[in-house]
């Protein structure tokens, strides 16, 4: 009588001795992962090329003006280039910012990376809720918050209003309201290939 079982990582097959079947890997912690990042189409190589071309144009023009006797133009040109370089570096650094939201059956974990600053916040999913706080005026954006037991974490401050509303709708569907835990869209669980291979061999064993 043949007996096999994938769950629990045990397998027993009658037949000639052979190498033990490989144990199925430990299932990974399943959940939903959402990563937010600012829109930044400028790459480091593109920034270098832009700055090099800008230096040639500004310094070349300033040198011609300085030769006519207006030498302070070179000082202003250098200050202008320093300001442009600072703005490019700020844009590149901002493009590295990240907000990662991980939602599992029991927990909502938010990791925020802004420049050299790293922070993380965890909420119990059953008690967490998502709230889109309307703006006080047209000049201020709305605020997307995850709240639980007096604590909150703001998300997507760099998103547009439309993107923030779409994210709020998705998070509400995944997290639910307080005391709710909607089912998460987990991928289908894969079967254990080693068990099926040994089962096939067992049927052909003498």
What does the model show?
The structure is a single chain. This protein has 206 residues and is of the alpha+beta class. The protein is 35% helix and 24% strand. It is built from four helices and nine strands, in the order βββααββββββαα. It has helices at 44-67, 72-94, 161-175, 193-203, and strands at 3-5, 10-12, 32-36, 98-103, 107-114, 117-124, 129-133, 143-148, 151-155. The strands form three sheets. The chain has a four-stranded antiparallel β-sheet, with no helix packed on it. A three-stranded antiparallel β-sheet has the order 7-8-9, covered by helices on one side. The protein has a two-stranded antiparallel sheet with strand order 1-2. α1 runs antiparallel to α2. The longest helix is centred in the N-terminal third of the chain and has 24 residues, at 44-67. The two termini are 12 Å apart. Residues 1-28 and 188-206 have low confidence and may be disordered.
What are the SSEs and their pairings?
Layout: E1 3-5, E2 10-12, E3 32-36, H1 44-67, H2 72-94, E4 98-103, E5 107-114, E6 117-124, E7 129-133, E8 143-148, E9 151-155, H3 161-175, H4 193-203
Helix pairs in contact: 1-2
Based on DSSP secondary structure assignment, what is the total number of beta strands? Answer: 9
Distance between the terminal alpha carbons, to the nearest Å?
A: 12 Å
Sheet with the most strands, sense and barrel status: 4 strands, antiparallel
Number of helices: 4
What strand line-up does the widest sheet have? 3-4-5-6
Order of helices and strands: EEEHHEEEEEEHH
| Helix/sheet category | alpha+beta
Beta content: 15-25%
Q: Low-confidence stretches at least 5 residues in length (pLDDT < 50)?
A: 1-28, 188-206
Radius of gyration from CA coordinates: 29 Å
State mean pLDDT (0 to 100 scale): 77
Helix percent reads: 25-40%
Describe the global form.
elongated
